[in-house]
Write a structure and sequence with these properties.
The protein is mostly helical. Helices cover 55% and strands 8% of the residues. The longest helix is centred in the middle third of the chain and has 22 residues, at 78-99.
């Protein structure tokens, strides 16, 4: 499933989401400008190499903790960058709107660091640089699903090159997505990390971090007034539910 559209109303412009997307694009353009040998050095220094912290490389090539932060702004290719930024654009604005710019910034960075730590602990001897915003974005997905579990998402499911569009609740989407990370993540434990691949545990760690800290960061009603029923978009209630739902709208 590939998210295409969400139904949660936003009151404020997602300036931090725009800034994060811009920083990722600029960082990737810088990566592509580097000669191969310089790029290899750059990724070794600023992407996340777990063995430099928890494995044998920590004895000969130790590192400070900077890569746990810098790796979330680096990507391995155009497709990697586009898919991550598109997912952030779908889920990020509603989350930033409810948390506020400052808290959203701290939340995003926290989820990214938590994702990197989960990946490094699950693969302590890996010498393959891990990079990408998907762990931090997994935290945004977890936050979105916890705040707006009944919100409707339009997702694309390609079947034989034909894109089919479906509507699914945010909680169901998040649970399907999460277990699609957990199963291969468990299967990858103890495997060969020399060839790289998808950092399943970064996704798992980022999602859990976002899910857990969401109640602590959401803006209080005193500083953010609740939406009225008619402030929804696309015919949905402000929290993304269909008309007729019960309960407060936030």
């Amino acid at each position: 499933m590939f998210p295409y559209l969400d139904s949660v109303a936003r009151r404020y412009s997602p300036v931090i989401v725009w800034a994060v997307i811009g920083m990722n694009v600029v960082a990737f353009l810088y990566q592509t400008s580097l000669p191969p040998r310089v790029l290899d050095w750059f990724l070794f220094e600023f992407a996340l190499v777990p063995s430099r912290f928890f494995g044998q490389l920590s004895l000969v090539a130790p590192s400070d903790w900077t890569p746990f932060l810098t790796n979330i702004f680096l990507h391995g290719g155009w497709l990697h960058l586009i898919l991550n930024m598109w997912t952030l654009w779908i889920f990020g604005p509603a989350v930033e709107d409810r948390l506020g710019p400052g808290r959203f910034t701290l939340f995003y960075l926290f989820c990214g660091v938590a994702a990197g730590l989960a990946h490094a602990l699950a693969n302590p001897d890996s010498v393959v640089p891990a990079l990408g915003a998907s762990g931090a974005i997994a935290g945004v997905i977890g936050c979105y699903a916890r705040m707006f579990p009944a919100a409707r998402l339009v997702v694309i499911v390609p079947i034989l090159f034909i894109p089919l569009f479906f509507e699914v609740r945010a909680f169901i989407f998040a649970m399907i997505w999460f277990f699609m990370q957990v199963i291969p993540g468990l299967l990858s434990l103890g495997g060969d990390q020399a060839t790289g691949g998808i950092a399943w545990w970064a996704h798992i760690g980022g999602f859990l971090a976002g899910w857990i800290v969401t109640p602590l960061l959401r803006r209080r009603a005193a500083t953010y007034r609740h939406y009225y029923r008619d402030e929804g978009i696309y015919g949905f209630l402000p929290d993304g539910r269909r008309e007729g739902g019960q309960g407060p709208w936030t």
